[in-house]
Write a structure and sequence with these properties.
- Helix content is 46%, strand content 12%.
- Strand 1 and strand 2 form a beta hairpin.
- By secondary structure, it is α+β, with helices and mostly antiparallel strands.
- It folds into two domains: 44 residues; 106 residues, Enolase-like, domain 1 (2-Layer Sandwich).
- GO terms for molecular function: structural constituent of ribosome.
- Part of the 30S ribosomal subunit.
Length: 207
């Protein structure tokens, strides 16, 4: 039964109040984005003014020294902030990285080691992954040169392993090309020890 007014004795109207809506992720994002658009200094000053108002002080009595300190902290925050790279910048950085990897002076990746079996008529090529404490784990099988196109087979094998980066693949293949050319130089057959001396960052074994 509806309640009656104590004065006119008419039924009182009841106004339904909808419950407060929860702050969903999208609404929270919009709220944070709106707050980020406001200057940090004005937000901090407003917070300090509210604090002083609750203590019975006038809004204009907020010490300027505190505002200056807050402004210095704000400037430091902006100095530490790094703007995220856009796609064009990322592509440019990646291209520069690959060009550096294509250089003949690029060192071999620390995570991988090229292995060569050095014989008079055959050069076998493989890649190992360098594990902690100097242990190594095979990444590829041995590919034989010149009985097959070892370079192309090695490339296909490395391309099929997503954890080997494009940069590392380029460096490994470039060094493989250098060793193959060194091994098959016409009129100057190099010995095993010469190969080890010329390419100290690779592993050579042979008879």
């Amino acid at each position: 039964m509806a309640s009656l007014c104590n004065v006119c004795h008419k039924p009182l109207s009841v106004r339904r109040v909808s419950p407060t809506q929860p702050l969903t992720a999208s609404r929270r994002f919009l709220r944070q984005a709106t707050l980020r658009q406001q200057p940090l200094q004005s937000c901090r000053k407003a917070r300090l003014q509210r604090l002083y108002a609750t203590r019975g002080k006038d809004d204009d009595d907020v010490p300027e020294g505190i505002i200056e300190v807050e402004q210095e902290e704000e400037e430091e925050d902006f100095e530490d902030y790094e703007e995220p790279e856009d796609e064009e910048t990322q592509r440019a950085n990646q291209l520069a990285e690959l060009e550096a990897a294509d250089s003949a002076d690029a060192p071999l990746p620390a995570d991988y080691k090229l292995n060569f079996l050095w014989f008079d008529k055959t050069l076998a090529i493989a890649v190992d992954q360098v594990m902690p404490k100097g242990q190594r784990s095979p990444v590829t099988a041995y590919f034989l040169w010149p009985h097959a196109d070892a370079w192309e087979e090695l490339k296909e094998c490395l391309d099929g392993k997503p954890w080997v980066s494009e940069r590392d693949t380029i460096i490994l293949l470039n060094r493989t090309t250098e060793v193959i050319n060194y091994w098959q130089e016409e009129g100057d057959r190099h010995e095993l020890e010469e190969a080890r001396s010329s390419f100290p960052d690779c592993v050579f074994q042979g008879a």
